[in-house]
Amino acid sequence: MGRWKDGAQCAVMLTFDLDAETLWLAGSLENLNKPGMLSHGTYGARVGTPLILQLLRQNDIKATFFVPGWTVEQHPDIIEAIRDQGHELAHHGYLHERPTELTREQEAEVLVKGIEALRRITGEAPRGYRSPAWEFSANTLQLLKEHGFRYSSNLMSHFLPWQHPDTEIIELPVQWLLDDAPFFLFRSGPGSRPIQPAAVAYQAWTEEFRGIYHYGGLFNLTMHPQLIGRPGRVLMLQQVIDFIRSFPHVWFATGSEVAEYWAQHVRENPDEGRQGRIYDPVSSSRPLGR
């Protein structure tokens, strides 16, 4: 039997950072007079997200959307559609500010503004937090603790969750390999990444899923509606879902569901430890899929 809910071998999170225009504003409103640049983000909110919602509905999957507060305020109808379809809404800053570039007071202000923006839509404070660019300052964890967050999804030191010491906060680890930005984020000008075909991301993600499944881990896929929401990439994401579902005993879940399950799992299995014990596939009778 696997370590996950109902004996599942692997947990899968489909997560979407709905930055919209904030990705291009990057913590400042100076680029508001550049509609061409901002249109990348507008596409993500107005076109990419509805395509993703349709895909999730067709596959009966609940996802987690990490949304900056400014995006919530500028695109409330899209955020309400996400809420009404039963997906989780979680915190992603206010204007896509990097905490490492803020004072403690500024970071606290950004955190509260994002919380309140989401609360106006959902009626409650968000339980999950993902920092823009996954950056943590020296103050981030303490601020998350003070504001009652249940989980963070920012660090890369495992492919199993863990509980941060002296807190109730569960870390749901991420990895650049499982992010669409390294494959698809293109900016005009020097130093930009080349755009890669969707097939390259498909190969990388399915290879990594196979490995994480083998070791009984958490497959936490980070995507951005303005990138993955292009028509051909949406079809590729459907292929990824089909591939994952070809393996037995997989649990699709939101961030809150994984965090709550893991907290209970560690209480019942203290030998897993704070950083998690690697599941031994050799000693398990669980079939490892194709």
Automatic annotation (TrEMBL):
GO terms for molecular function: hydrolase activity, acting on carbon-nitrogen (but not peptide) bonds. InterPro entries: Glyco_hydro/deAcase_b/a-brl, NODB_dom, PgdA-like. Transmembrane segments: none annotated. It comes from the Bacteria. Residues 34-253 form the NodB homology domain. SUPFAM superfamilies: Glycoside hydrolase/deacetylase (SSF88713). Residues 271-290 are annotated as: Disordered. One of its GO terms (biological process) is carbohydrate metabolic process. PANTHER family: POLYSACCHARIDE DEACETYLASE FAMILY PROTEIN (AFU_ORTHOLOGUE AFUA_6G05030). This is Polysaccharide deacetylase. It comes from Thermalbibacter longus.
